[in-house]
Design brief:
With about 290 residues, the chain is mainly α. The protein is built from 16 helices and no strands. Helix 6 packs parallel to helix 8. The C terminus is likely disordered.
Amino acid sequence: ENLLVIKGLNDPNEQMRQMPAKAAIGINEDEDVVEPLSKTLGNSLESEAIRAMAAEALGGMGSEESVSALIDALKDDNVAVRYAAAAALSGNVESRVVEALILATKDEDKYVRASAAYALGTTRAGYALIPLIKCAEDENEVVRFSAVNSIAGYDFEDVYKRLMIKNKDEAFESKNRILAKIEILGKFKDDRAIKHLKDYLQDSDPDIVFKATNALMGHEDPSMLEELIAASKRLDKELMNLAKENIAPEVFSDVTKYNIDFGESAPVTAAPKASQDSPKEVVKEEPHIEVQIP
């Protein structure tokens, strides 16, 4: 089987090369197979699909040569190759792998950053937590989701210690940092996490309150119900004020007549009462025609 893989990877036909590349996935460490797979992975003229399969195959081998090839692939010009290489390094706890993945979390492509964040989470390396927390502040939702879920796999004590570190260069925490903290704290059932989330319910920023409300709802604790309701009402009131500022008066008047509860009763536009002087609707009767049959 290994001999077929080696020969097949050098076939001039692309479809014929795909089969051995796929067949190589799951093969145990074999020096004879690692070398041609590494060459395939590093070949910029090869199709990205075959190179991605080569990365997956090398990731399952774990030899020094295969890991080196994957680390090199993290710097490849092809996005799909970098993504596949990061994913293939999942579960490898070598320091050189962790350091390479940390660098990959700064990749220009969001999917590569997300793949690297996922792979970092599988290492459970303590020094990967700070970069993962930084990833949780990423501008892209895919990256944030991957980072937060990776952090959720760590012990809360380790996460909490690093999450509470304040940036000396910032007088106040940035909004992105706060939103990331809320997402992360929401993954843990610890009392300290819940306390911080409750504190964020009192924030003046509606985005922060909304995020904290969602995070606390995941805890399903009946004792939080009153606080969550109060926070929701404040959010509704904020929405109403925003509507007043941004919606044309005549449109806003149409909205309020439905008496939607935005934390306090919205004004209702009552229908005008008919006065005595108001003209009554006259019902015109059809004339009765009697037809006589001779």
